[in-house]
DNA sequence: TTATAAGCGAGACGGTACGTCTCGTCTTGGT
DNA sequence: ACCAAGACGAGACGTACCGTCTCGCTTATAA
């Protein structure tokens, strides 16, 4: 049993952590994930390599935290409501709004590059994949569950439907196009997905 | 000007190519994609490294061809019809059959490991991604287009719907769960997806 | 201008110093000089690294002082006379006694390992070498000068001879064998060196 | 049992070997042995690190071979006789010639720096020490044995004397001063050593 | 008798070099 | 000409120590 003596996080250098986050995101954006190296991150952050290895187990873990940090800061800046799906009573319109926003995000390079890298790493590395899903994806999916539950209670969604499955009718196609780049991601595409999927969930006559 | 002198493919060693395919698939299955190296493939195939670099540009390209080769052989063994979606007239039943088969495939390790590796590489490397989509994914998606067109002509699918989008209602959610391992892939899940999606495509009253 | 503020030696922890000496000597004996590290000494002594760097400029300096301390304690234990070369009137016999004792010391691991390490460091690092010679070697060589002067005055050594050179006829060969391990160091060898060298110093007919 | 598969020395790059020798000797001369690193040698030689680790087990081994190579080239350039001790019949004069030459060599920086480094490493590392003695020192000592044997047969050296010990009367003091820098190495010093030592070896009346 | 400032243990930090691994290219015989 | 074999230049890996730098915590004067 190799008892790892954990470093003392009270003494951790906040300055270094921030510099590492920034360097990691910048490098992934500039040279791509595979060419981003731990050495490169350390050099760019003006940090010793050991300072990275002391706090993270892998390049992917660094990037995941950097990305979460970026998302947290964005959420904070977005105002008190944070991120949630609007509820105007019109399910189709609300989901259109959200999916269009998601499409925009996926077309934004500073978001796209690291998110894509993390997703890819998670596909192949179960450990990272679990973290990616748990810390990044799942919170977002819960927003759909919440909104769809409201719709279900309002009678806009069939009562027998599992909402975890329902939400995948929206996010699944979007993620598919995003990850594999089969066809371009546009607002129109988002609208069409919402149209079909909402129809599929609607109560039968 | 770097004049690339192409190797003479007539003189190519068939024995080596087969050995490389087998070694690549075996290693990806055994140690995972990131730990599979070109050196390792060469050593296992009893082949010089240059023989790999002469014919393929990257580890991912080797694996892609190896995987296509495996798929071709499976298709050949599957009989004269090859792969196509059945058309019994009942769209929902036909798609259930296909999605259940796909779920089974994704739960088969010898298929899962290399396919997952290729998808992940394609997510991050546009070059590989394009190849992956064009040579592996697109032919399968066309089968859906064909079946859905028949359904549309039979009045089971709304006429205004873009079939490229329609098909993603089925494959998107499936791919999502498969790649990110959010929840287990089961026949029941396939059925539920088909249920909702077919409903969404159906003509409105 | 780097104003070096010297530490206050009055407040120095005696306990720490002793622990550092012991740790340094023990580690050099156990794992050898190159694998002995400042971190290792600190850990073994139960001491912070800074406590070493505060009082010594280098690993070699620590070991030198540790060794001198060990020698001092040995000398103290040896009785009031301390170390000196006996003078029975028989130069050859007296030197035989001393060289045999030196041979024994060199064959004692607790003496050999650190002494060898210090000598090696001194060979390559002039600073350490000077300290090694001045504080460790020179006092011992002076003992030879004293004894040989007595012999010279008694007419047993040619009058023209420089005693600094004379003594090297004894210590030089011994050191040579010890440091480079060309051949084993034995009492017989000591005797033969003394025989030849005393003969070489003797007045000519 | 870790069976090391030895590299094929027939395919070795002569160009790289020479570049490594030159870089190693140059660096030791310029920055000293402790600051000479394997990485530095590789960089200066325009060579990958692995090319060094493939052929040598350590920095010291590289330097030893580089030094031997330098010595071989010098010997080759020195003419057909190579290195040997002259025999004019006058033992004292012949040894004076040789020891003066040795003193000169030890005062030559390009010789001194690497030789000193190797000797120091050999003092502390028995493996290296054995190589140093066997490949560098022993051949030179044998020259003394040869010359002293001739003198012994000519009746200029006592018949009972072990020549391996006799030679150390000359080389021991010299090495002592050289390695530990106790006092300067001069021709006069060499002469005095020869004077005393030859006298010590001479037959007794 | 307290306060105050030093030394202390601990250990995180920016670095350098280690020795290993794999990359993609180049070279040498063998078939 | 293609091949198996593998040496090569290059450079990232993750580890070990370097010497410096805070941290709180004794601990011993000097107010």
From TrEMBL, chains A, B, C, D:
<dbReference type="InterPro" id="IPR011075">
    <property type="entry name" value="TetR_C"/>
</dbReference>
<keyword id="KW-0804">Transcription</keyword>
<dbReference type="InterPro" id="IPR009057">
    <property type="entry name" value="Homeodomain-like_sf"/>
</dbReference>
<dbReference type="InterPro" id="IPR036271">
    <property type="entry name" value="Tet_transcr_reg_TetR-rel_C_sf"/>
</dbReference>
<keyword id="KW-0805">Transcription regulation</keyword>
<dbReference type="Pfam" id="PF00440">
    <property type="entry name" value="TetR_N"/>
</dbReference>
<dbReference type="InterPro" id="IPR050109">
    <property type="entry name" value="HTH-type_TetR-like_transc_reg"/>
</dbReference>
<keyword id="KW-0238">DNA-binding</keyword>
<protein>
    <submittedName>
        <fullName>TetR/AcrR family transcriptional regulator</fullName>
    </submittedName>
</protein>
<feature type="DNA-binding region" description="H-T-H motif">
    <location>
        <begin position="37"/>
        <end position="56"/>
    </location>
</feature>
<dbReference type="InterPro" id="IPR001647">
    <property type="entry name" value="HTH_TetR"/>
</dbReference>
<feature type="domain" description="HTH tetR-type">
    <location>
        <begin position="14"/>
        <end position="74"/>
    </location>
</feature>
<dbReference type="Pfam" id="PF16859">
    <property type="entry name" value="TetR_C_11"/>
</dbReference>
């Amino acid at each position: 049993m190799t008892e790892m003596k954990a470093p003392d996080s009270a003494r951790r250098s906040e300055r270094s952590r921030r510099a590492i986050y920034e360097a990691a995101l910048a490098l992934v954006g500039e040279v791509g994930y595979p060419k981003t190296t731990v050495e490169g991150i350390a050099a760019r952050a003006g940090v010793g390599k050991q300072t990275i290895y002391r706090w993270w187990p892998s390049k992917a873990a660094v990037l995941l935290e950097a990305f979460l940090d970026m998302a947290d800061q964005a959420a904070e800046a977005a105002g008190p409501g944070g991120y949630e799906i609007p509820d105007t009573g019109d399910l189709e319109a609300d989901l259109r709004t959200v999916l269009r926003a998601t499409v925009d995000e996926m077309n934004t390079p500073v978001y796209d590059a690291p998110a894509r890298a993390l997703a890819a790493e998670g596909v192949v590395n179960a450990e990272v994949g679990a973290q990616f899903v748990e810390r990044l994806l799942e919170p977002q999916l819960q927003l759909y569950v919440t909104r769809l539950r409201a719709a279900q209670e309002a009678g806009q969604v069939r009562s027998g439907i599992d909402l975890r499955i329902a939400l995948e009718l929206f996010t699944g196609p979007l993620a598919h196009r995003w990850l594999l780049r089969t066809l371009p991601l546009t607002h129109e595409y988002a609208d069409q997905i919402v149209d079909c999927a909402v129809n599929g969930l609607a109560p039968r006559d």
